[in-house]
């Protein structure tokens, strides 16, 4: 349809990368996959070539090349999701009305700013360094914040969920929720206490775009997931 | 201009509340101020009456009442900022073009998801509880994440800053940067290593809307700042 080309810098397990993969897949946008291993070589995100792409040394980054050969690099998953929604509005991932959009973004931000940042890899590593926290302690820290956040999120979803997280259509709320649920399972969490989260995550995970974006389906996933 | 009425649940020092105060002031929107003290009474955000407003027990929340008496409650500062921008677009806090908007949102998210959540009050408190971290240790933790984030942000700003954080107009990037700089000062950080951050923060802080939104100017600020 368009001559725009996308390159996604991603790590298969990075939940923020996973969000952008879902949106690209959902909108039917083909992209080249540039793996950046967050653990190998002391963290490939700190290498000079990736710092030139993203001075924050974080994933994901999306390079957008137009037909004339111009290229821009965008970082921060939520900024990328909003950009894709504005430039490739179909199929939509935000409602048309301002209030509906605010409700979706509120759910997005619960995950994006109140849960994910406190349990991500660089925080767990810092806790290990500063407090000699072992892997079990790191997992307990991560679970604490996900359980706390999911408690509030469950209450918010009870007001707005339909077939999906916010009403009956897939939205950015599902796009960020599914990767957080993936992290929750990695922390060994029992999701039975969060019936709405479990239900809407399962509904979204069954969709082709979400399946294609799953960590285990990525080129940099190990042969044994 | 409109019969819409706003009530902001806020704490004077909450940097996420501070963001929304700036946007309301910048757009000339009058609002009622509902203080929620994050430390008094074990944290008023955990009281049943505030949990009914916001199940996440976080600040800010914005209640929007229309002329017909309908009311909606929105939480999460970035979702609120986007809602205000969509419903009260003048004066704008986002550029018109998708790429410009993405650049602003990228800067917003560096603060919103990569810095602020890891250094906020509930994380510092949890570190105190789990690792007997004293106040000096908590400040050192906060400084570490702000300094690390500002290092990357300085590199991003060098590409896009003009008179303000993203070009010559005030944008949401300034709206979230100024409260983070306020936090940095509270952590005793020397901002001399971040000349672009310092320069654009000073330019924004001098504007009337930013001054009116400053923590020391709020009704719940103690008489001696």
In CATH's first tier, which class of the largest domain in chain A applies?
Mainly Alpha
Strand content of chain A is 5-15%
Enumerate how many helices of chain A there are, as a single number. Answer: 9
Low-confidence stretches of chain A: none
Decide which structural class fits the backbone of chain A. Answer: alpha+beta
Verbal overview:
2 copies of one chain form a homodimer. In chain A, strands 2-1-3-4 form a 4-stranded mixed beta sheet, covered by helices on one side. Chain A has 225 residues and is of the alpha+beta class. Chain A has 2 domains: 7-91, 3-Layer(aba) Sandwich (Glutaredoxin), CATH 3.40.30.10; 98-210, Glutathione S-transferase Yfyf (Class Pi), Chain A, domain 2. Chain A contains 9 helices and 4 strands, in the order βαβαββααααααα. In chain A, helix 1 (15-26) runs parallel beside helix 3 (77-87) and helix 7 (172-186) crosses helix 8 (195-205). In chain A, strand 1, helix 1 (15-26) and strand 2 form a beta-alpha-beta unit. The first copy, chain A, is 52% helix and 9% strand. Chains A and B meet through strand 4, helix 3, helix 4, helix 5 and helix 6 of A and strand 4, helix 3, helix 4, helix 5 and helix 6 of B.
């Amino acid at each position: 349809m368009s001559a725009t080309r996308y390159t996604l810098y991603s790590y298969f397990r990075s939940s923020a990368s996973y969000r952008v993969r879902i949106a690209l897949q959902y909108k039917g946008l083909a992209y080249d996959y540039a793996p950046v291993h967050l653990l190998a070589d002391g963290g490939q995100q700190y290498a000079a070539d990736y710092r030139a792409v993203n001075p924050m040394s974080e994933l994901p980054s999306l390079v957008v090349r137009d037909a004339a050969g111009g290229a821009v690099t965008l970082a921060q998953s939520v900024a990328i999701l909003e950009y894709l929604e504005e430039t490739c509005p179909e199929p939509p991932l935000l409602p048309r009305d301002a209030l509906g959009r605010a409700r979706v973004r509120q759910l997005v931000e619960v995950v994006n700013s109140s849960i994910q940042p406190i349990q991500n890899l660089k925080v767990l590593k810092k806790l290990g360094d500063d407090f000699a926290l072992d892997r079990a302690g790191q997992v307990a820290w991560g679970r604490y914040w996900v359980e706390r956040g999911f408690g509030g999120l469950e209450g918010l979803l009870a007001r707005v969920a339909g077939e999906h997280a916010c009403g009956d259509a897939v939205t950015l709320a599902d796009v960020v929720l599914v990767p957080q649920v993936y992290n929750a399972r990695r922390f060994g969490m029992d999701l039975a206490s969060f019936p709405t989260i479990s239900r809407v995550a399962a509904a979204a995970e069954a969709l082709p775009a979400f399946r294609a974006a799953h960590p285990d389906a990525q080129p940099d996933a190990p042969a044994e997931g």
